[in-house]
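Pilot study result, target chain (99 residues):
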Amino acid sequence: MTKYNNDPFGFNKAINFDKLDDPKVLSELSKIFGIEEKTDYPLTDSEFMDIDDKLYIIIQKTLGISYNINEDKHLHNWYCDIRNKLCQQIQDKKLELKK
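Predicted structure:
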């Protein structure tokens, strides 16, 4: 029976995969490879939730729907895209005004 070596160069043995979960190691690797660390949302959680709550009602009333936006996958994705772009625009403006 022939035995195949799936790691002929020994990369799996050379990499300490446990270290890839270490924030310090990830930060150093980001610097080495020129990767900027980004946050998922540019606003604080409370700011994001406030915008989400108010925008949800505005969109729902404007579209004239009585059902939950989350029930329609395409409508929900569209809503999330608009909300995220709006939040990014708000964050950009906040940074611009601080200068």
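One observation from the pilot: Helices lie at 11-14, 23-33, 45-63, 73-98. A full batch analysis is planned for the follow-on phase.
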